[in-house]
Structure formats: structure tokens, C-alpha cells
Amino acid sequence: MSIDLVKHCALWIVFSFFYLSGLEMALVLSIDGQQDPNLVTTLVYTFLFNLLVGHLISKYEKLSPLLSAIIISLCGVFGFGYYFSETLSGYSAELIAGLLVSLPFATYTVLQIKQWQAEKLD
Questions:
Q1: Inter-CA distances, 65 with 33, 40, 116, Å
Q2: Distances (CA, A) of 103 to 1, 68, 75, 80, 86
Q3: pLDDT tens across 11-58, in order?
């Protein structure tokens, strides 16, 4: 295992704590902004937040943006949000599962859009 990957993984774990902080705020705003909150709308609104985070990951992470999104999502949502601090423990299992896959999917979407734009310019 390369030392660069270990350094990046350590950084991703630290960033996952800050990701959770932003995700909690997006989640609260998403739920409070709905007259009758439901799972799908909440996931759509938080997916928009994750598109922004995915853009930042793909912009600054050159080693492996998709792997970093997976680690940040797992450590942020499950590690810090559900296991250590229990800040997300009051939400449904479906919402937690949706939040877990949302950041990697958003990062993949951003990477595909950037690749499509690069091919379009060529």
C-alpha cells in the first residue's frame, strides 16, 4: 500500500467529519423546508448538497475521487453520524442508506459530466 494512499485516507476521514456537519445542516433545512416531509424529497434535496461536495472532491482530489467519496460517505454518515456521535440515529434506516450512497453517486455524476464536457471540447 502506498504511503500517498494512507495519507489521503487519513485526510478523507478528517474531511468526513466536516462533511457530516454540512450534511446535517442540509438535512435539517431539507426537512424543515417541506410542508409534509417525505423520504424522496429529502433525498433529492440532500443530493443537491452532495453534488456540490462531489464537485469539490473531483476538483481537489486527484488520486481517486470516487474512492474518497465512498470513504467520506461511510465515515461521515455511518462512522461519525450514526456510530460515534449518534446525530443521525433518529432518522430512518432508508434515509441513512440513501445518504450513504448519495455522495458516491453524486461524485460519479460530476466526474461523468466533466468527462463529457472534456470530450465535447475536443
A1: 31, 26, 17
A2: 25, 10, 12, 15, 20
A3: 999 999 999 999 999 999 999 999 999 999 999 999 999 999 999 999
